[in-house]
Design brief:
This protein has 13 helices and 14 strands. With 439 residues, the chain is α/β, with parallel strands linked by helices. The strands form 3 sheets. Strands 4-10-9-8-7-5-6 form a 7-stranded mixed beta sheet, sandwiched between helices. A 4-stranded mixed beta sheet has the order 1-2-3-13. Bound molecules: pyridoxal-5'-phosphate.
Length: 439
């Protein structure tokens, strides 16, 4: 049974104390099941989460929004982190693990030879763009995909408020971003070579940076990446790949390694620390040296837990062949969705790379069906939505249990659809699709 437990009660209080309720749009209950989602946790281990009423669920959504690739509270990473805590995680002097991690990252990415660190993805991207602009001394950024909340990125919505729609999160409001940044960032569409070349021509001589996620929803065409690399090289533009979400899941390191493309900068975050904050900007020494010509500096970028957690995570990713497991589990899930939807004649569109799959309902009220799916999975002990990020903690048994339950729930939804009024089966308001002010 779903009930409005302690977690939802706390969320109602939070909305009065914290504007927007949470610190991350993707953790808002409104994105799932607005009035009934168990917003807070008391404990998380493996792929299981306990809410404030001590009710246990399997996480079949994003495992900490993509951060916990090994599973929650991983024993090996925690062992390393606890040692760092006992030996002092912050100090006047620097953590030697910064240097060890830099060597590990450069060995995995032989085209790179220098590294800087942050503690979150968005700020790592802001650092990358700052370094790139410092190097080229040109302001305009052409980008594709989602890259965080900072001014350089949201500036794209100053010109055309829907410019960022289609780049993962629709409706991102740029209020508070200086109007003077209008015309400094322009989006292009993934795999659209013509569109990209048009922008290069339109802003000839003024583009300093090209940014994209190597892969997310669909694989790059070989011509697309080759064109981007050739054009950036020819025009002295810094080419940045954002590996914050795609990195470490299909292979050890950045997904660009799979496509034989050598960028100038690659940026990592999320999974690299398995839940402990860590971000890295790696690049060629030529471009990275520009970091010395711009003031880029922050106290907590020097603490010790981040690099210690990253070293332990990378070691385990390698020793346990984690990317292969993630692809295997992700494939089973995507094939499962396909079969189940066919069985119940409920049309869905599946996309995403194997470890980061998602689907949408092919129906006039897709968000109603999505909310119904979350609602009915929740009553059966699963935190679920239309997205699934695989982790090492997802075993075949958990996947089987999830797919059997999803089969039952698709049956329920098919019957609700057949009544012509699926919304009547909702016990909550409908989930949000993107960024929106909360009441
Ligand atoms: C590709 C990409 N870049 C940047 C970010 C921003 O990272 P963070 O939320 O850690 O600031 C995200 C987060 O979802 C992302 O997926």
């Amino acid at each position: 049974m779903i009930h409005m437990g302690k977690s939802q009660e706390l969320y109602q209080k939070a909305k009065k104390l914290i504007p927007g309720g949470t610190q991350l749009l993707s953790k808002r209950p409104e994105m799932f099941l607005p009035d009934l989602w168990p917003a807070y946790y008391s404990k998380a281990k493996g792929c299981e989460i306990w809410d404030l009423d001590d009710i246990k669920y399997f996480d079949m959504v994003t495992m900490g929004i993509g951060a916990c690739i090994l599973g929650y509270a991983d024993d090996d990473v925690n062992f390393a982190v606890k040692k760092a805590v006992d030996n002092g995680n912050m100090c006047l002097l620097n953590a030697p693990e910064e240097v060890e991690l830099a060597e590990v990252l450069c060995n995995l990415h032989p085209w790179a030879s220098m590294v800087r660190y942050t503690r979150s993805g968005g700020e790592a991207m802001a650092v990358a763009v700052r370094i790139a602009r410092a190097f080229t001394q040109k302001d305009i950024v052409l980008f594709c995909g989602y890259h965080g909340w900072h001014d350089w990125y949201l500036a794209a919505n100053l010109g055309k408020e829907t410019a960022l729609d289609g780049h993962l999160l629709p409706g991102l409001e740029p209020r508070g971003v200086p109007r003077a940044l209008t015309g400094t960032a322009y989006p292009f569409i993934y795999n659209d070579i013509e569109g990209f070349l048009r922008l290069i021509k339109q802003h000839a001589g003024r583009v300093g940076v090209v940014v994209l996620e190597t892969i997310r929803n669909q694989p790059p065409t070989p011509e697309f990446l080759a064109t981007l690399r050739a054009v950036t090289q020819k025009n002295g533009i810094v080419f940045v790949v954002d590996e914050i979400t795609a990195g470490w899941r299909m292979n050890l390191g950045g997904s660009h390694l799979l496509y034989d493309v050598k960028p100038d900068i690659a940026v990592f975050g999320k999974a690299m620390g398995n839940g402990y904050p860590m971000g890295a900007i790696i690049g060629t020494s030529e471009v990275m040296s520009a970091a010395q010509e711009s003031f880029i500096s922050s106290t907590y970028w020097t603490e010790r837990i981040g690099p210690v957690a990253a070293l332990a995570t990378i070691k385990k990713l390698q020793n346990r062949s984690v990317p292969a497991h993630l692809c295997d589990i992700g494939k089973r899930i995507q094939e499962g969705w396909r079969q189940i939807s066919k069985g119940h004649q409920l049309g869905i569109n599946i996309s995403g790379i194997l470890p980061l799959g998602h689907f949408s309902f092919d129906h006039a009220q897709p968000l109603v069906l999505k909310t119904l799916f979350t609602q009915e999975m929740l009553t059966r002990g699963f935190l679920a939505s239309t997205v699934f990020y695989a982790s090492l903690a997802h075993s075949y048994e958990v996947v089987d249990q999830y797919l059997n339950t999803a089969d039952e729930v698709f049956g329920f939804i098919a019957k609700a659809v057949a009544t012509g009024q699926p919304e009547k089966h909702l016990k909550s308001s409908v989930c949000h699709a993107g960024f929106r002010r909360l009441a």
